[in-house]
Amino acid sequence: MSQNLLEVKNLVKVFNIGGRIFGSKLKAVNNISFNIKGDNPEILAFAGETGSGKTTVARMILGLETPTSGEVIYKGNNITHIKKRNELMEYMKEVQPIFQNPFETFNPLKKVDSYLYETARNYNLANTKNEISKIIENSLKSVGLTLAEIEGRYPNELSGGQLQRVSVARALITKPALLIADEPVSMVDASLRMSIVNLFNELKVKYNVNVLYITHDLATAYYISDRIAIMLRGDVVEFGDVDKVMLLPLHPYTQMLIESVPQPDPEGTWKEEIKLSSLEVKEFSRLGCKFCERCPYSMKVCKEVEPPIVFKEGREVKCHLYAKEGVTTKVKI
Ligand SMILES: Nc1ncnc2c1ncn2[C@@H]1O[C@H](COP(=O)(O)OP(=O)(O)OP(=O)(O)O)[C@@H](O)[C@H]1O
Ligand SMILES: [Mg+2]
Known about the structure:
The chain has helices spanning 54-61, 85-94, 102-105, 112-122, 129-142, 147-150, 160-172, 190-207, 218-224, 242-247, 252-259, 278-283, 300-304, 320-323; strands at residues 6-17, 24-36, 43-48, 69-74, 77-78, 95-98, 178-182, 210-215, 227-232, 235-241, 309-312, 315-318, 329-330.
């Protein structure tokens, strides 16, 4: 069996909120496990409403947030507690982030090409200016830009779409095996969104880059990804092949989400930014299933016991409904 590129094992993140004395704990990520094999590049979407824990998962994978428990293993090495700078640099070279808002990623007073030069220099990718320029030209080319188009320009002189392409080009300079793209198109003009989403597919096909595509937009997730994880209040409630999950959802929450996006239309999103009501905030600390108050099939056990993860019809589903059917179940502790 070949080694996985990335293994995420029983990842948990608990935040203390509201101060030390009267504060409480919020389990933003509850026991998440998945692998990216890496031999056959893929786009894996993490989709969920606002506050479901997507960014926290991304930050733990990137080493920006320490997990409360669980592990992130990259090419067989546990990176959860890497302390040495050279080991961290080596990891960051291979796993690169792309953030949501290109206008925040780039300092308005700094020329955008300087980010590309800095990245190439920080990772000691070449010794001469000529070699560095060549690397930069190549990574810009892979996102459909040229150095001439962006050289000497400030962020406000580029469109959101162009700027996000520069972010992707910067991430590609180190020739990463995995991009962690957290809502990479949500701040980009709707008309340019699909071109960026398509770019991820191109990178996968042409350059063997795996992409963890984090989004609250089910439609682009369906359009671009190979597998999808549906998150709800820190849980992955359904995970598997995107066609299986989207066309024949098993979890009642996934079913509800898909009903709210009538067609797999690239422009369709969840209706609006969903603000958590107090009922939903309580869902984080619920003993049983996080969805049971809203689920049409809720049973007594759903209120009391955390659902097992059941393997059914080519995906994992965290739901008591299917545990009853006697299929193989895996309860993670
Ligand atoms: N540093 C922190 N301290 C306390 N709570 C936090 C912190 N970071 C995130 N949270 C909480 O953890 C939960 C998950 O947050 P996270 O940002 O991972 O969600 P998300 O799915 O990325 O949401 P969005 O779609 O809005 O980006 C939220 O309730 C959030 O308020
Ligand atoms: Mg987020």
